[in-house]
Amino acid sequence: MNKKLIDLQNISKSFDGQMILDDLNLYIRENEFLTLLGPSGCGKTTTLRILGGFETPDSGKVIFDDTDITKLPPNKRQLNTVFQKYALFTHMTIAENIAFGLKIKNKTKSYIDDKIKYALKLVNLDGYENRMPDSLSGGQQQRIAIARAIVNEPKVLLLDEPLGALDLKLRQDMQYELIRLKNELGITFIYVTHDQEEALTMSDTIVVMNQGYIQQIGTPESIYNEPENAFVADFIGDSNIISATMIEDKLVEILGTKFPCVDTGFGCNKPVDVVIRPEDVILSSPATGRIKGVVTHLIFKGVHYEMEVTANGYEWLVHSTGMFPVGTEVGIDVDPFNIQIMNKPASEDEEAVKIDE
Q1: Coil vs helix vs strand at 195
Q2: Are 240 and 316 in contact (CB under 8 A)?
Q3: pLDDT at res. 86
Q4: Contact 261/248 with Cβ under 8 angstroms?
Q5: Which of 22, 222, 62, 219 is nearest to 156 (CA)?
Q6: What homologous superfamily does CATH list for 4-225?
Q7: What is the 3-class SS of 60-85, one letter each residue?
Q8: What's the confidence (pLDDT) of residue 357?
Q9: Quick one: which of 125, 140, 215, 219 has the most CB atoms within 10 Å?
Q10: Contact, 33 vs 191, CB < 8 A?
């Protein structure tokens, strides 16, 4: 396990009397690709700005490599930030843009030239030294912004929605590019996005945030397959989130029908929430399903059909490679392993998970 590089301890931050971060605790390991994921206003960019030194927390500490850097200005930190707006200097060539930070550090011309070549090769833009930024596509400009950050040899690269302005195909290409860069450079990436697919594709660790709190921390697989609460389940991919009753260990009643499941320890006859992913709903003939329903909507999505099925008063979202026309009566079943049981939150703002090291 890589060692802990950054430790955010009890970070709180308010703007105009509104709490943005509330006693946030988070640590980040060396060479980790960690993504802060959540809706607008959840505190993820503020967290990144506090890390970068662009904001000072009202309380709490930022520990970097066992040193308190809470009050250190951005240019004294071993971090570089890449923003969504590339912020390239339009009057400078690509080489001059990349060299900017190195010239401030009074590096020699030969050192700077070597670094420019190395960085352009890394981002697959060899030979672009003398081009001007406005002659490049959005994706190329973003890669130059990343090259400019890399040449400073930061221990950590902070990326604030860097792919948000790109079209879908370019965004996907850049995702693979960033994964490759992270593996080649061996530096820590801290990435901010509200795009769930981006987070699932690139991250070693995802931190799901909402209303200034951390809702869940985990691998992409655990966040997707085992959400801690309804917010996480709903935010990461599509979900059927249904109020249910845990009858006893390994048996849950959903919409008046008993389903075997694999969860234990929730007590007897306790109200719970269940999460069932659309791809985990099994459609069959009405006679063989545990619940009977009728298909009310059907859309072809290329890889699968997306259907809505009304059953026992609930609109089930279903993804299936099999097509059932609107009006078809169907049976619904779910494999016990694909029923995720969650405690009902005590309140909307309830912090879902305490972070254990």
Answers
A1: coil
A2: yes
A3: 65
A4: no
A5: 62
A6: P-loop containing nucleotide triphosphate hydrolases (3.40.50.300)
A7: EEEEECCEECCCCCHHHCCEEEEECC
A8: 36
A9: 215
A10: yes
**pTM across the whole model:** 0.84
Q: What are phi and psi of 261, to 5 degrees?
A: -140, -175
Structure-token pair, residue 100? 């900017």
d(C-alpha 165, C-alpha 244), whole Å: 41
pLDDT, residue 347, reads: 53
| Residue 208, CA distances (Å) to 42, 127, 345 in order | 9, 40, 16
| Amino acid making up residue 7 | D
- Indicate the CATH number for domain 239-343: 2.40.50.140
What's the pLDDT score for residue 1?
A: 67
Q: Residue 274 contacts by C-beta under 8 Å, 6 or more apart in sequence? A: 240, 241, 242, 244, 252, 254, 261, 339, 340, 341, 342
Residue 180, C-beta contacts closer than 8 angstroms, at least 6 positions apart: none
How far apart are the C-alpha atoms of 218 and 337, rounded to whole Å? 19
Which tokens go with 346? 């005590």
Tokens of 169: 């195909």
pLDDT averaged over 10-residue windows placed end to end, the chain, 357 residues: 91 94 95 94 94 96 96 90 78 92 87 91 89 88 87 89 79 85 89 92 95 95 91 90 96 97 96 95 96 97 96 96 96 96 69 39
> Where on the phi/psi map is residue 239: left (φ > 0), alpha (ψ -120 to 50), or beta?
beta
- CA dist., res. 196 & res. 261, Å (int): 27
- Structure-block tokens of residue 63: 């520990």
Other beta carbons within 10 angstroms of residue 352's beta carbon come to 19
Rounded CA separation 29/272 (Å): 34
Please report, in angstroms and rounded to a whole number, the separation of the first and last CA atoms in the chain. Answer: 12
Residue (of 53, 56, 82, 68) closest to 157 by Cα position: 82
Domain residue spans of the chain: 4-225, 239-343
